[in-house]
Design goal:
The chain contains 18 helices and 18 strands. Helix 5 crosses helix 16 and helix 6 runs antiparallel to helix 7. Among the domains are: 62 residues, no CATH class; 329 residues, TIM Barrel (Alpha-Beta Barrel), CATH 3.20.20.70. By secondary structure, it is of the alpha/beta class. It is globular and about 95 Å long. This is FMN-binding glutamate synthase family protein. InterPro entries: Aldolase_TIM, GltB, Glu_synthdom. Belongs to the glutamate synthase family.
Length: 582
């Protein structure tokens, strides 16, 4: 009988356990020299790292919401996306903090059916091809690359279903933006067909599993190990793959935006992705081809806290993303800080004019401001050009808030660079009015806009149009785990903001497309409800006089101009109260 046979199972277990713990103790205290804490507190000190690792993904489930005004606002987004009743019982779980804006209601309110359903905004009236958006809301810029291909397709389909515009983000108009475009022409599309056998295999895989798995198997059968396989969209009806053939001559591309595509705002950043040649220079021919599928252009000068150029970590630069952007796969893609054709405001406006002539469509710019000196030079140059009869100036200005502004921004810039969206919109609107050019330029707002009350307040302060990022991200399944960049060693757990194939391929594209459309629908529905209790029949009747300001001591201020005058320029009376407002 061996020595071990004299012991029971549990005796053996505890002996092995004791040996492991002693070895672990010796390693932490005498061997490793990476963590100082473990030298003084072997083994038990590791709990610190366990709790730290668990803190981020679990923080949203405990305590009050800190990043937004209230967790109730976040709950509203998730319910709206699922088209669920959005009422609170008894009281808010987390009331909005003071100071805050309040909405004036009317003595005689309207019924919802007395409020117009028209939420249209027209851009670039003086262009040959102006754009009339059917909604005051667009999904803000999110690049295909920072967002997974499946996520982009969900947004595109949701945009088409909901009838609202979608901003391409600086990654350009990739193949995934054509997912709803099935009435294409082989003159401008590269088409890859398959064999009847492979199509039959796809049919059976779908029968026994699901459509997503069948599509993956079918793509593998058709393209084998082609690194650019993901740049093709599968036509579910004909079972062929297709992608835009950007090498086709300009004359082959459609003269008008196809009706089976959503309204796309093409964003150009300092990297010029989607409108550049192999050497990284602006390519007029490629730009014109892209604009055959887009309604207008947005030049991104800055985005939220990210005053630097866009940054895409190397592991997200898949062969597909490299193909779209004309860069090398699996290498960091860091755009320049300064837009290459904006060494001065005059040069920027000349480039705007060039794009307006090439596309015959509206062109705008996206900026972030810190004070009046950031916007006055733009207003002066617009005024100067109007007086000269020169229409080479932006058709619209997008004002992004300094509150983060993207999933991947330098932490030292977040909340330190740029005004919040309310301050920014009021200030830009005022400066454009003072220079007499407000009626020539549309004002677009972006930054922490989630719910209908946010929309009413921002539009009352002067915005004509809104771009929403975080709200649409949440409607598309984002759980705010804050692993978007992937540089932490973790990936987006739902497959929305990652290139990790094992995660993103499990993303429910069609379901989330419906959620995205629902979110937009319920935003407008509840904006109508607010307009009704304000006694307004049209969104265009909103103005700053429809608002009140409640400071931290519950004092009511009904002169919004005075609130902002003291906060932004001439006095400090309300600064302590108002600067807390986000």
């Amino acid at each position: 009988m061996s020595f071990l046979e004299d012991f029971t199972f549990w005796e053996e277990f505890w002996i092995i356990f004791a040996i492991i713990m002693i070895a672990w103790y010796i390693h932490d205290k005498y061997v490793q020299r990476e963590h100082q804490l473990l030298v003084n507190y072997p083994i038990i000190g590791r709990l610190r790292y366990v709790f730290e690792e668990a803190r981020e993904p679990f923080r949203q489930y405990f305590g009050d919401e800190k990043f937004y005004e209230s967790k109730d606002k976040l709950d509203w987004v998730y319910k709206a996306a699922r088209d669920l009743p959005n009422y609170a019982s008894f009281s808010p779980s987390q009331p909005l903090p003071k100071p805050k804006f309040m909405i004036r209601h009317a003595n005689i309110v309207l019924n919802d059916n007395e409020v117009e359903d028209k939420f249209e905004v027209t851009f670039g009236e003086r262009r040959k091809k102006p754009y009339t958006a059917k909604s005051i809301i667009a999904r803000s810029a999110m690049s295909d690359g920072s967002i997974s291909p499946e996520g982009t397709r969900a947004f595109v389909q949701g945009s088409q279903i909901g009838g609202f515009p979608i901003n391409s983000g600086e990654g350009g108009v990739t193949s995934n933006f054509f997912v709803t475009h099935v009435n294409y022409d082989s003159a401008y599309m590269k088409i890859v067909d398959s064999t009847p056998l492979k199509k039959k295999i796809k049919h059976y895989v779908k029968f026994f599993f699901n459509g997503s798995t069948a599509a993956d198997v079918y793509r593998k059968l058709v393209f084998k190990n082609d690194p650019e396989a993901e740049t093709y969209i599968l036509d579910m009806k004909s079972k062929v793959f297709y992608r835009p053939n950007w090498d086709a001559p300009l004359e082959s591309f459609p003269k008008e935006v196809p009706s089976d595509m959503p309204d796309i705002i093409f964003q150009i950043s300092s990297g010029l992705y989607g409108a550049r040649d192999k050497e990284g220079n602006f390519d007029p021919d490629r730009y014109q081809k892209v604009m055959r599928f887009c309604q207008m252009t947005e030049i991104k000068m800055a985005q939220g806290a990210k005053q630097t150029g866009g940054k895409l970590a190397g592991h997200k630069v898949t062969p597909a993303i490299a193909y779209y952007r004309n860069v090398e796969a699996y290498k960091d893609v860091f755009s320049p800080n300064r837009f290459p054709y904006a060494n001065s405001i005059e040069e920027l406006f000349d480039f705007v004019g060039k794009l307006q002539k090439l596309s015959e469509k509206p062109v705008g710019i996206k900026i972030v401001i810190s004070d009046i000196e950031n916007i006055e030079p733009y207003a002066k140059e617009i005024k100067k050009r109007i007086d000269q009869g020169n229409d080479a100036y932006p058709d619209y200005i997008t004002i992004d808030a300094g509150s983060g502004g993207s999933a991947t921004a330098p932490i030292e810039m977040m909340e330190r660079v740029g005004l919040n969206v309310r301050d920014s919109v009021y200030l830009v609107n005022k400066v454009l009015i003072d220079y007499g050019v407000r009626d020539k330029v549309r004002l677009v707002a972006s930054g922490k806009i989630l719910t209908p009350d946010d929309i009413v307040i921002i539009m009352s302060l002067g915005a004509d149009f809104l771009q929403i990022a975080r709200g649409f991200m949440m409607s598309a399944g984002c759980i705010r785990a804050r692993y978007c960049s992937g540089t932490t060693g973790r990936d987006c757990p739902v497959g929305l903001a990652t290139q990790n194939k094992s995660k993103r391929r499990k993303y429910f594209v069609f379901r989330h497309a419906t959620y995205v459309a629902n979110y937009h629908k319920n935003l407008l529905k509840n904006v109508k409800g607010l307009l009704a209790i304000m006694g307004l029949k049209n969104i265009n009747q909103l103005n700053k006089h429809r608002l009140l300001f409640l400071d931290k001591d519950s004092r009511v201020h009904d002169n919004i101009d005075e609130v902002f005058k003291r906060k932004l320029d001439l006095g400090k009376d309300l600064e302590d109260e108002y600067h807390e407002l986000r």
